[in-house]
Structure formats: structure tokens, C-alpha cells
TrEMBL record:
Alphabetical keyword list: Disulfide bond
InterPro entries the record matches: CUB_dom, Sperma_CUB_dom_sf
All copies of domain CUB, residue ranges: 25-117
Tagged with keyword Disulfide bond: yes
Pfam family name, one: CUB
Species lineage: Eukaryota, Metazoa, Ecdysozoa, Arthropoda, Hexapoda
Protein name per the record: CUB domain-containing protein
Gene3D superfamilies for this protein: Spermadhesin, CUB domain
Length: 117
């Protein structure tokens, strides 16, 4: 059974200190990277388990022309209640830099909901 993760962050600094009393082989370090963002074209669940990180993840959700995309937000966990910093923005289309395509901004202060486009 693998050990539990020690840290969940996008940066880590490690300092390995030794003395000169007993000699061994050192240590083994391994890490994994959780993907943030991507393309979605089938029903799925998205979760970001550590919301304390400074992240900007962009998912492009695409459906066939005769289908409607339904987004259900079950919960948002955040220490800060600031909607400017901790939010999910929903855009119509794949142009996330175009403010006019912004459909909704969802944050903890407004609560979860259902959005369709």
C-alpha cells in the first residue's frame, strides 16, 4: 500500500540533511501531477480536491449540435468567501477571454446550482 501524500501543492522545497554517523543509500522521492483543465466531450465529474491552491483551470466542454450542456455544481469548498478569487466562470463558446460570452460566475457566497447552455 503506497503512503499517503505529504503535501498537495504546485511547489515543494526539499532539504535532505544527514550526519556522518551512519551511512545509508539516501532516500527515494516520487511525485504525481494532477491534471488541471482539458477537453471534455462526454458526461464526467470534475473535482479539484485542494482548493487552497492558486489555480486557474480551463475545461472546454463540447456537445453535439443537437444536445444541451448541463452543468451541476454540487459544492464549493473555500476558506475565503471572496467571489473575485474563488469562483467558477461559465462561458458560452471556447473564447474565455471574451467578457461578452460570460454566462455566469458561481462562487461559495451564491451557492451551487444548475446552468445550461
Amino acid at each position: 500500500q503506497p503512503p499517503q501524500p505529504v503535501i498537495s501543492s504546485n511547489k515543494i522545497e526539499m532539504i535532505f540533511s544527514t550526519d556522518n554517523v551512519i551511512g545509508y543509500k539516501g532516500f527515494l522521492f516520487s511525485y504525481t501531477v494532477t491534471k488541471c483543465g482539458g477537453d471534455i466531450n462526454s458526461p464526467t465529474t470534475i473535482s479539484q480536491p485542494n482548493s487552497s491552491l492558486l489555480l486557474e483551470c480551463v475545461w472546454f466542454v463540447t456537445a453535439p449540435p443537437d444536445k444541451v450542456i448541463t452543468i451541476k455544481i454540487k459544492s464549493m469548498r473555500s476558506i475565503l468567501m471572496l467571489c473575485d478569487y474563488n469562483n467558477i466562470k461559465l462561458y458560452d463558446g471556447h473564447n474565455v477571454t471574451n467578457a461578452s460570452s460570460l454566462i455566469d460566475t458561481v462562487c461559495k457566497t451564491r451557492g451551487p446550482g444548475v446552468n445550461q447552455t
